[in-house]
Amino acid sequence: MKQEITFRWVIPAIVVLLAVIGIPFANDYLLYVATIIVLMSILAVSYDVLLGLTGYLSLAHGFLYGVGAYTTAYLTTNSGWGYWPALVASAVISGVMGTVIALVAFRTRGIYFAVLTLGIGLVGYQLFLVLEPITGGVGGFIGIPGLPSLPGFADAPQRNNLVIALLVLAVAYGASMLFLRSSIGAACLAVREDVVLAQSLGIRIGMARLCAFSFSAVFAGAAGSLFAAISNFVGPDDFSVMATGFQTVVYVVVGGMGTLWGPVLGAVLIVALPEILRGASTYAVFIYGLILLFFILFAPKGIAGFLLAAAKRMSRSGRVVISKEAEAR
Amino acid sequence: MLELLPQQLVNGLALGSSYALIALGLTLVFGVLQIPNFPHGELYMLGASFTYVLVAYGMNFWVAVPIASLAVVIVGILLDQVGYRRIDTGGNLSLMISALAMSTVLQQVATLIWGAEPHTTLSPLPGVLRTAYFSIGYYQMLIFAATIACWLFVWVVLHRSRLGLAIRAMSQNKMAAQLMGIDLIWIRIATFAIGALIGGFAGSLLGASFPIYPTMGLNPVLKAFVILVIGGVGNLWGAIVGGFVLGILEILVSAYISSQLQDIGTFAVLVIVLIVRPNGLFGRAEVLR
């Protein structure tokens, strides 16, 4: 437990350190990969609030991510909004959509919850294809304006993108931490452990899991909004159930459910891996599936589980050394 | 518009029988073992691919079908032994994730072996039956018959054999079944084998009327989940009826409303059914909050 709390601060500290050291020197390619990693981390951290804290597996988040992306695409390209209002609008609309979905989906649980959200994700994906006047259909949106530059980054758009993404990640991470430590977060943990017991203790479980779902939807929308502005293009294929929606589950499971910092590591590993394996790109998805299978079978607590076990072992061996020294005296 | 209705209904039945055939194996495994066997779609794909390969080497189609189906049985048993048995007590979440992971792995293996581009086999039974109201291919009639035959096969195994008795006992109460001297490991393998056999058989037959490619199983398995929810999990008759209902519904929606709305209609049905009856249309009544 103590190690867990340390990791909560150590991992963000490492990210900030890497950013401060790396950003001035990295080339555009590295910056782009790092930006995608950060985007996926935003998704993963906020999704962990739902999956890790309440234990509900939603497959509708690829759709919510898409709602954010299309909202920003539409508002900035067709309606001439500035980026920041569009970001807020994307998060809000995605959050409202998420709340509506949650009100429906929480009538079920377990496997039915997963299948129902899968169905919603599929309907949503089809809607992106069919609602051509708004979404552009199969062709999608092109020519979406990029992110506005922060002071000092006007001549380096890639650096600018990464810094903005990192800022949003910081907000998402901080908000998730606050959520975890709030009374609603505690109620969510109770829902995960035992719904009936939680209910009989007078915890309003409906409210708790609804908040968790809406929370993750808001940040999925924000991540989608960033994605639209960074890639300047939005097409329906990124938002199918098996694309981003499923990948988010992978990040969280591989990283370690319920830890919030673990999913960041999961996103780093899973996004960076195909880039490292670029030479063997035909095997990339295959390896990615094997990794997921390996983690769920042999290490269901993910990377976070490994790190925590290692930290515990180190601190224990440290304590043993101290006690032996004491004996020697 | 309306004079085409008999033809549309026949088309719907033809599509529905392919859905029902796929849903049958899925509902068996789901009903008995409570495993959401997503790779069932990949078993279907492998059935089609194996048949394609055997036919390409000059084997007769009707000889290739049973060989391919039996090969898929081996893959199906392996899936269970590798991916599900270890984590059977780990809860729905790990089972689902493991299922999705194995699905991806099988798709990728197929892509590495056969490539991503679609292949087609010639229909082994060409020819069309024409009547005053509708026309239907002989091969589609064969698939319809095969669906009914598979349902009968599973029903007879489940209700008229000692193995079936053991399978039903296991699906009702694992502990009690074990105390009665039933070897759960073998029953498990048998259940998976039957499920995979039907999945492979479905792919083997349907590969002759649909293009064969590594992700061909994804959409049918999603439809099969919809059918499961409509028909009730583990309900064989429900899978058949649900398959036909879904097939006819899809054809009618695409014929009379818009072909773009075909899939939306399907998944909207899923969502509505789950909202009204959170445990499936014919699912057991259970108070959920």
CATH level 1 class label of chain B: Mainly Alpha
Strand order of the largest sheet of chain A: 1-2
Q: Profile the largest sheet of chain A.
A: 2 strands, antiparallel
CATH architecture of chain A: Orthogonal Bundle
The quaternary organization reads as: heterodimer
In whole angstroms, the N-to-C terminal distance of chain A is: 31 Å
Considering DSSP H and I runs of 4 or more, what fraction of the residues of chain B is helical? over 70%
Protein traits:
heterodimer, A: 329 residues, mainly alpha, ABC transporter involved in vitamin B12 uptake, BtuC, two-stranded antiparallel sheet, 14 helices, 2 strands, B: 289 residues, two-stranded antiparallel ribbon, 11 helices, 71% helix, 2% strand, globular
Structure description:
The complex is a heterodimer of chains A (329) and B (289). The relative contact order of chain A is 0.17. Chain A has 14 helices and two strands, in the order ααααααβααααβαααα. The model of chain A has no long low-confidence stretch (mean pLDDT 87). Chain A has a single domain, classed as ABC transporter involved in vitamin B12 uptake, BtuC (Orthogonal Bundle). Chain A has 329 residues and is an all-alpha fold. Chain B has 289 residues and is an all-alpha fold. Chain B has a single domain, classed as ABC transporter involved in vitamin B12 uptake, BtuC. Chain B contains eleven helices and two strands; from the N terminus they run ααααββααααααα. Chain B has a two-stranded antiparallel sheet with strand order 1-2. In chain B, helix 1 runs antiparallel to helix 8, helix 2 packs parallel to helix 4 and helix 5 crosses helix 6. The interface between A and B is large, with 41 and 42 residues. Chain A: It is found in: Cell membrane. Chain A: Keywords: Cell membrane, Membrane, Transmembrane, Transmembrane helix.
